[in-house]
Amino acid sequence: MSLDANTPRIIEVVAGVLMRPDGSYMLGSRPEGKPYAGYWEFPGGKVEAGESFEQALARELDEEMGIRMSRASFWLTRVHHYEHASVRLHFFRVWDWQGEPRPLEGQRFAWMAPGTASVEPMLPANGPILKALALPFVYAVTCAHLLGEAAILRRLSEPDAPQLVLVREPGLAPAELARFTAAVAERVHDYGGRVLLHGDTPELEGLPVDGVHLPARQLAACTVRPDVPWVGASVHNAGELARAGELGFDYALLGHVQPTDSHPGQSPLGWEGFEAIRAATTLPVYALGGLNMRDLDLAQRHGAHGVALMRGAWA
Question: Fewest Cβ atoms closer than 10 Å to its Cβ: which of 12, 71, 100, 177?
Answer without folding.
Answer: 100
